């Protein structure tokens, strides 16, 4: 398939994990990519992974902190100036934060997680949606989480921020559908990325792999998800095949959200 031939797609958090997996899948279908991350080394690695397999693809890199609105305005304007349009936006960058009971959760840590996970998503939507409205087309996929549709113990900042992403998605989808723009969120469960490994290390320390084996017992499919499985979903949701999916959140978690 070449669902993204001549399409311009921005991906934040493109230096690793879900962002990298989505970038590779979308690149395989002909997109022009603008990858955004705070970690330039990670971006360079993602670009090389893509070009090794798809040397014909255009991949631009922008180092940015999504928690800073000026950085967000810069990557959006760079994309517009370089390509003249923005067809799709995977608004994905995020962090988990430290794990603790709510009463012990640090204020600075809470603010950091909200700044990246929620404010960063809002800034991206604010500046990308203006362009998409003017174009009369576009698709946005925000990364929420199962932690955005149910509780997640010891992760107040993460759960609060991801619930906020779900709310922004639904609200903005209602606002912008009339302009030919569809907005949806994905809610990944435990996908085996560096972020999830970090979470397991907080729980199990050097025995984090054993902690992971215990963790997946709560999943109906008894395994972790794979980044590429999320990449396939994101590619579909950014494509014209999903234009009528709007103002909603789609879990990709092996059924974990609905087990209890």
TrEMBL record:
Keyword flag Transmembrane: no
Protein name: Levodione reductase
Gene3D superfamilies in the record: NAD(P)-binding Rossmann-like Domain (3.40.50.720)
The keyword Oxidoreductase is assigned to this record: yes
Keywords recorded for this protein, A-Z: Oxidoreductase
Organism: Shouchella lehensis G1
GO biological process: bile acid metabolic process
Gene Ontology MF terms: oxidoreductase activity
Domain of life where this protein originates: Bacteria
Family: Belongs to the short-chain dehydrogenases/reductases (SDR) family.
Entries under SUPFAM superfamilies matching the protein: NAD(P)-binding Rossmann-fold domains (SSF51735)
